[in-house]
């Protein structure tokens, strides 16, 4: 897990906005509350269905410090990372739940020292799909030699962040030099078969807007990414997903500092799409924090909005009978998932 | 004081108050124009951005700066669109030089 200072992209950060302050900003935004949007559309309150996606945020350690990061991850976050007993508790629940997907995120999840052992254990349980949410540049770290080959051998589905097919927008969001590193990493993955037809090695690109605006239509963006990456860089990928930026943590700080907060919240509210609600990820996802606490999604995790059932709030005392059908915790950040084509960890929902 | 106020764009539908049928016809037409057609919504947004500069409408410039970003355009693409508007405006000015020359020649010995 060692990484030299030359390997990481460390940019100066202001002090983190406290969670209570973030929730206050969300509540005070001059837009109708999220639950009122649902009621106006004639939709019932959100409830969780049986979990099919078991998402684990293994920690906040990352070799990048992206300006939009909802996790507030970075190279200095060495404490908030999942330990092996918590991974073991996750494995027990995965064995019970038999989810379709185990979705591993961070931070850069690969930097957790137990990452590879955990992937092997999940594979032994026969989970059909294992996802690694990868920032791409981590694959180039000296400390991570063999990582790409490891992922390919375990047939891990890689969901890789790439906001744009140009250096200006990519580096503005993710740090100087990240676009070039991302291309290098994508070429390495292609060489292993990722993103190539008939290999079964899925390489999904994930794009977030590099500013206070909504993402483009996913299908047309995918066609443009494919044409440009193929023509200019010889890079192939399986699919592109578009995600909206959530008005929390660093992106909220950016919105406030740039004077875009009110207009962005109004944009999300105006773009509320009832058709995007059915596919919301909170309906089928269980999100586990680095310390084992349970949430309805990764964004709620960052806002410390724990799942509703008080007797099942950690992976150590998980009780399935209390979790299926539980009411989903909501706040105004949820407007980010219902705007326009909708947004989830799997991309557009409408 | 500026004659343009940013909040006025949101009041645009209010023009219907004094001529509702014409407003409805315009907004229906406007909506149709920007749907996907032979041109993509992205291409239409870039055209709109260029025209917004040519007609120097601050409301349209801000609206289509945002729309083109939401259509996945880069800042380089946005600026190239503005240059297209500039080139056509500049060219349109210069080409009138031919008319000027013709008339000046007629008047001159």
Describe it for me?
The complex is a heterodimer of chains A (350) and B (109). Chain A is of the alpha/beta class. Chain A has a single domain, classed as Alpha-Beta Barrel (TIM Barrel). Chain A has 12 helices and 8 strands. Chain A has helices at residues 19-28, 34-40, 84-97, 115-124, 147-153, 167-174, 178-191, 218-233, 249-258, 261-270, 298-302, 320-323; strands at 53-57, 101-105, 129-134, 157-161, 203-207, 239-242, 285-288, 294-295. By secondary structure, chain B is an all-alpha fold. Chain B has one domain (12-107): AhpD-like (Up-down Bundle). Chain B has 4 helices and no strands. The longest helix of chain B is centred in the last third of the chain and has 33 residues, at 75-107. Chain B is extended and about 60 Å long. The mean pLDDT of chain B is 94. At the A-B interface, helix 8 of A face helix 3 of B.
